[in-house]
Structures are given as structure tokens and as C-alpha cells.
Amino acid sequence: MKPLVFLFFIFSFGATNGQDVAILKYNGGGDWYANPTAIPNLINFANKNLNTSISKNPQSIAVNSVEIFNFPLVFMTGHGNVVFSDEEVINLRKYLISGGFLHISDNYGLNQYIQRELKKVFPELELTEIPSTHPIYNQTFKFSDGMPKIHEHDNKKAQGFGLFYEGRLLVFYDYETDLSDGWEDQIVHKNPREVREKALKMGANIIEYAFTN
């Protein structure tokens, strides 16, 4: 597959700069803009620890925008409703099948809506839990127990789910962990350093995996 390299190479969709990440701007009323310091902090961590040169100012991209194809990885979060129109379903499916990667971080309250909308995009696929032996947990940083727990909500275990299309993982969904909370400025959630570090390392693994597979 073409080098999806948000990390090291030029994205094969034809973008002139393959080192950008986008935040997915969706409809339905959910707060797609949640955790505003999360992605900039993750980018800074990746640039320092993975020797990357990712743009420090992530852009917001609508689901139906043709510009989504300029980004090797898009990030999505929120607490509430998500609605993909027919046009958005077609565009997002094309983007993902073409080599794009979507990371969804449930910020508590997103789950029922995103599961419904993903079914529109890939009705033939089921979200499956990703085992701790999968490469996404074993990149530069190792997570032998799988998804780390960052933020507690319902006393459920942290899980990572994925959609696989023709053997390729193209959607990664962190559930009951709230990774992006751990990427935010320390003052926001007052997470201790070790918790924030775990979250940032797992985020860096997602970036590394998405751009080398």
C-alpha cells in the first residue's frame, strides 16, 4: 500500500504536504470541537518522540469535503449525536477505502451514535475488539495489556475497536478510556503526568500505525 505517512512521507492522495492531521467536523449536534488542546499536544509529542514534522495547527474538515483526501489521518471526538448524510457516507467510505484512516475517541456519550453512523458507511462490517497483540499496541511504545485506561466514567474496561476492510484496519475507536482527555493540557482534567504520558504514547502509536500500514 502507498506510504500513508503523516510521519515521514508524502501522502499518496496527492497532497503536497503529507504531514497534516485533520479534525472531523460532523453534523448532528455533537461537540466535534471538544478537547481543543488535545491534538496540538499529541502532535507536539509525536514531533518530539517520533522524529516527525507534523504541522502544529490541525485543520477542521467537513465529512463531505473533497479536502479530506489531503489528510492521511482524521480524528473525531465528542459527547453527543452524530449524523452522516448520504453524501457524507459516500465521501467518508471513499476516503477510508482509498487509504485514509479515522481515529474516533469516545469522549463519553458518543458511542450509540457513532456505531449507528459507521453502519451507514460500512454496513457489511462489524466493529471488533482489537487484541493486545495487534501491531497498533506494539509500535514505538508497547502496551502489552492493550488499551490503557485514561479517564473513568462507568467502571468499564478500556477497549479499542476497529473496522477492517479487506484485511486493513481503517477505523480505530477507543472506548471507555477517553484518550483525548489525556492529551489535553494538564490543567483541564488534572490528570497526573504518568496518565497523560500513557495517553500520548498510545496516540503516537495510532499515528505511527496509520501511516505505515
Mean pLDDT: 89
Distance from N terminus to C terminus (CA atoms, Å) equals: 7 Å
According to CATH, the homologous superfamily is Domain of unknown function DUF4159
Instruction: Please state the structural category.
Output: alpha/beta
* Second CATH tier, the architecture: 3-Layer(aba) Sandwich
The residue ranges in which pLDDT falls below 50 over 5 or more consecutive positions are 1-17
What is the CATH class name? Alpha Beta
The largest beta-sheet arranges its strands as 2-1-3-4-7-6-5
H/E series, N to C? Answer: EHEEHEHEEEHHH
CA radius of gyration = 16 Å
Number of helices: 6
Structure description:
This protein is of the alpha/beta class. It has one domain (22-210): Domain of unknown function DUF4159 (Rossmann fold), CATH 3.40.50.12140. 29% of the residues lie in helices and 17% in strands. It has six helices and seven strands. It has helices spanning 38-49, 86-97, 111-121, 179-183, 186-189, 193-210; strands at 22-25, 59-62, 73-78, 101-106, 128-129, 159-165, 168-175. A seven-stranded mixed β-sheet has the order 2-1-3-4-7-6-5. Helix 1 links the parallel strand 1 (22-25) and strand 2. The longest helix is centred in the C-terminal third of the chain and has 18 residues, at 193-210. The N and C termini lie close together (7 Å). Mean pLDDT is 89; it is low at 1-17.
